[in-house]
Amino acid sequence: MDRALRDIWLLNFSTFFFFLGISVVNPIISPFAITLNATPFLVGLVAGVASVVSLFSKPIGGLIGDRGYRFQAMMAGNVLGMLAGLLYITSALLGNLWIFTFARAIHGFSMGIFFPSSLSTAVDLAPEGRVGETLGWRGMMFSLGNIIGPALGGYLSDLLGFVGAFSFTVIFSLVGLALVVPVWLDGRRAVARREERHEDVSYSELLRSYFVAASLALFFFSFSYAGVITYLPALYKVLGMPQSLFGFYMMVIGISSFIMRLVGGRSADRMGPIPVIRAGMLLVILGYIVLILYRLPPYSYVSALLIGAGFGLSVPAMQLMALGNLPQRIRTMGSSVYTMFFDLGMLGGQVTLGYVAGIRGYAGIFPLLPFIAAASLIIVHAPLILGGRKR
């Protein structure tokens, strides 16, 4: 196997195990907090602390990566994941919610350190003309980790208890670390020779039309998506329906997205990112329309299929649009800023649509989602509308 291809796949699998170590904890956060007599407010605080810390730590991850330490950042992310896992175990043994909350914060920090470098190295190592495809594979590993992890975490907690389930966070993070080490040690690669310290770094170069448009489009995309993943399960709960129905809904989205990511990446390489994003966003909008008409299973699963497929097409193409033409010396910070727009969109969607739900009820937010997604579709065309040129 070609050395560059080997390195790509080692980092792909490292990404899979890193996010597997995170997502295996997700389904047991609330049950574990409740067993420690946490109030509903504290349950929400514990669940959200990792996302908030991740949002603010991403610029740090970007600075580290742009100083030539991308692989070290990925290793550090896995080491912090192992530390978080050990603290999870400690909190379970001592019955201490605050140790668990601190562990969630560390895991959030690890995401902010790991993910920007994971994304930028996919662009760095990609063969000529196959950047979108490589981003698609990297995204598939991210999706696969988030598909398998929650199901595995629920099963392990039932079988082994909280301590046993938390132990797998340490194991998966250790595997993720072991997969990055050979790439880091391989000093003979051309990319390793290029990864030197860059003294003259100007982040004003991020103000490129394609980067700005892709980031803003991602913001509105995640804003609309927050309405589905936050308030559709709330609607099911109010209607007295089992939460397993929404779990299956998310599984359909995950599988559909997983399948389409490679298609989206390869298509973006051939046609350019904007046509692929357009197709993906139209599928997402169609999925939202179906959800307005059919909010309940089994017909609601059609919307999950469409949203997941649109997600899978759009995400690698948006990443290519945002990062493909950035200079390598600022690409990791670009990855940080770009992914922060996803986090900001999720937070903004949860808060704003929560206010709307308080006025119109949970079902009242779904008619708004196609219009929010349409804003993303319009924004992604701004460079072309304003006379930009695809490189």
UniProtKB/TrEMBL annotation:
A Pfam family recorded for this sequence: MFS_1
Residues passing through the membrane, by range: 9-29, 41-64, 76-99, 162-185, 206-226, 246-264, 276-296, 302-326, 338-359, 365-386
Membrane topology of this protein: Multi-pass membrane protein
Keyword Endoplasmic reticulum attributed: no
Domain Major facilitator superfamily (MFS) profile residues, every copy: 7-391
UniProt subcellular location: Cell membrane
NADP recorded as keyword: no
Keywords: Cell membrane, Membrane, Transmembrane, Transmembrane helix
GO CC terms in record: plasma membrane
Any one GO molecular function term: transmembrane transporter activity
Alphabetized InterPro entries for the sequence: MFS (IPR011701), MFS_dom (IPR020846), MFS_Efflux_Transporters (IPR050189), MFS_trans_sf (IPR036259), Tet-R_TetA/multi-R_MdtG-like (IPR001958)
Organism the protein comes from: Thermococcus aciditolerans
Protein name: MFS transporter
Taxonomy, superkingdom: Archaea
